[in-house]
Design a protein that fits this description.
This is DUF2796 domain-containing protein. This protein is an alpha+beta fold. The strands form two sheets. It has a six-stranded mixed β-sheet, with helices on both faces. A three-stranded antiparallel β-sheet has the order 3-6-9. It binds zinc ion.
Length: 191
């Protein structure tokens, strides 16, 4: 499994990770993308998901009710990040919030057919105009007392954010590079 290439690219992995996997990710309501980078006991989690799937809307929060919704959802994520991305509790991991950005304009190519059909359909349902897509992004730093090698990472995104039905997880560690799709919390990564 462990190739020379993985070893060679690792030093720059943590800095590259955000840019790599998300450069070409489509905006699909209900689907989150999570990048996890791990090196021994340290790591990072990067989450990108349509804002609609987190807050129920995807324009900048204007009303008090919307602002409240944003801060509540952000708090749920911060408080439960280690349940949403669940490392084995015996590793003694802690998470620190790096950055949460509620609404980032979706700059994906609008000529993308898959994106187009998904967005038209979803937005038709709740009456938002096409072209107002925003993405939610969050980054966390992870520190564990023990190496995660040999353990499992499980996921519970749907428990805390029911609109998120599917997550696509990309994991990069010094030992492993893999991707899994988790539907309604079912699935894990074996490290
Ligand atoms: Zn959207």
């Amino acid at each position: 499994m462990l190739s020379i290439m993985h070893k060679a690219i690792f030093p720059t992995l943590l800095s590259l990770i955000s840019g790599l996997a998300y450069a070409h990710g489509a905006h699909e309501h209900g689907t989150a993308k999570i990048d996890i980078a791990l090196q021994d006991t340290d790591g990072s989690i990067f989450i990108k998901v349509p804002s609609e799937s987190i807050y129920g809307f995807e324009h900048e929060a204007k009303s008090e009710a919307e602002k409240k919704k944003v801060s509540e959802a952000n708090n749920i994520l911060k408080k439960n990040i280690l349940e949403i991305v669940r490392f084995d509790p015996s590793l003694g991991c802690t998470a620190t919030e790096d950055k949460i950005t509620p609404f980032i304009a979706d700059t994906e190519d609008d000529d993308d057919n898959e994106h187009e059909s998904t967005s038209e359909k979803k937005h038709g349902e709740h009456g938002e105009k096409h072209g107002e897509h925003r993405d939610f992004q969050a980054e966390f730093k992870i520190k564990c007392k023990q190496t995660a090698v040999g353990s499992r990472i499980q996921f519970a995104f749907t428990t805390y954010f029911p609109k998120v039905q599917k997550i696509i997880v990309q994991l990069n560690s010094d030992k492993l590079q893999t991707s899994v799709t988790v539907s309604k919390n079912k699935g894990f990564i074996q490290l």
